Input
Amino acid sequence: YSMTGYGKSVAIYEDKKICVEVRSLNGKAMDLSTRMAPQYKSREMEVRTLVTSVLERGKVDLAIWVEQGEKVDLPSINIAVMQAYANQMKNASEQTGIALPENIFEVLLRMPDVVARKEIYEVGDEEWAVVIQCLNNALAELMSVRKQEGEALSKKFCDKIMFLVF
Output
């Protein structure tokens, strides 16, 4: 096997496209660099163990990312919080004599807790199984490339040795 290779795999899970890309170059020891979607970071050690067991050594770059489908949870505006801020600003304006800003809506949208963003969700076992299968497919493709390149290098070396012998 050569040390150089590339593999990529894509899987669809619900409304997401999960992409895994792995590259390897020559290296005496395992030097694994990972870039993973935030929702998968908690399982990075499992990924590292799997990659290391398959590739053993080399300079390896691994990327796992997610492309969301059309069904994306958008941030929501908390109207009650926004109204409370608006009332406080109006009262403060009346008490201090300071005019309310012309762009009060923009100001309100920047206030804390007015726009609620969804937290990164917990990855379920079913989704994680899809990620691992996608990773295994990318690793298999990389190993196939490594094997082809290794066979080509072996042939070149054998040809050179035979040339030198005769």
Remarks:
- The chain is about 45% helix and 25% strand.
